[in-house]
């Protein structure tokens, strides 16, 4: 018997695996939180399936999402990333990955971890929504607006409210699995 999944999951196995094993599962690890920050910022204006299909290329190109290394990328490394056909070669997005790595570490210094900072917006536990259909799921919320403004004030790039809400969904700050999805109750 087929499992009932969220409306956005298509028949592509990479999408199914992502939905079934990752999306909406609470993430408290700074390394993974940074990975999703990079992936979500590159996704801006594109489909998520595009990013998922290139995820391993991103991992390789960006030193396994090691923010300490990324923050120190030279102009030569930046130029090489722009030549890497395995990733999204958008100059501003590549530059933002380097910029965001630097500010990610600034947040760590201030709060002890990025996790403490970002999860502080939801008191350390996911917001459980009860959405039934596609039309119920928002693209932004007051909270994603607030997080976006805070991150922008801190110098982060490509962190608009829509990107931040998608980030909150991905890292499990909100449980936006629809109520008929098998993952809704698992999470």
UniProtKB/TrEMBL annotation:
Top EC group: hydrolase
The keyword DNA damage belongs to this UniProt entry's keyword annotation: yes
EC number in record: 3.2.2.20
InterPro entries: Adenine_glyco, DNA-3mA_glycosylase, DNA_glycosylase, Tag
Pfam families listed in its UniProt record: Adenine_glyco
Assigned keywords, A-Z: DNA damage, DNA repair, Hydrolase, Metal-binding, Zinc
One annotated GO biological process: base-excision repair
Annotated Zn(2+) binding sites: 6, 19, 177, 181
Top-level taxon in the UniProt lineage: Bacteria
Catalytic activity reported: Hydrolysis of alkylated DNA, releasing 3-methyladenine
GO molecular function, one term: metal ion binding
NCBIfam families attached to this UniProt entry: tag (TIGR00624)
Function noted in UniProt: Hydrolysis of the deoxyribose N-glycosidic bond to excise 3-methyladenine from the damaged DNA polymer formed by alkylation lesions.
Name of the featured protein: DNA-3-methyladenine glycosylase I
Source organism of the structure: Tenacibaculum todarodis
């Amino acid at each position: 018997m087929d499992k009932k999944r969220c409306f956005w999951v298509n028949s592509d196995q990479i999408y199914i695996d992502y939905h079934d094993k990752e999306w909406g599962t609470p993430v408290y690890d700074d390394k993974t939180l940074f990975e999703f920050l990079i992936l979500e910022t590159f996704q801006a204006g594109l489909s998520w399936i595009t990013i998922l299909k290139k995820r391993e290329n991103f991992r390789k190109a960006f030193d396994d999402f090691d923010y300490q290394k990324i923050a120190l990328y030279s102009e030569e490394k930046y130029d090489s990333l722009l030549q890497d056909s395995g990733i999204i070669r958008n100059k501003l997005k590549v530059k933002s990955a380097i910029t965001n790595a630097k500010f990610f570490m600034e947040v760590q210094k201030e709060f002890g971890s990025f996790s403490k900072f970002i999860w502080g917006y939801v008191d350390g536990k996911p917001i459980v929504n009860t959405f039934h259909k596609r039309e119920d799921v928002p693209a932004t919320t007051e909270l994603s607006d607030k997080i976006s403004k805070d991150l922008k004030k801190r110098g982060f790039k490509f962190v608009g409210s829509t990107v931040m809400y998608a980030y909150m969904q991905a890292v499990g700050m909100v449980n936006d699995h629809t109520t008929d999805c098998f993952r809704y109750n698992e999470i």
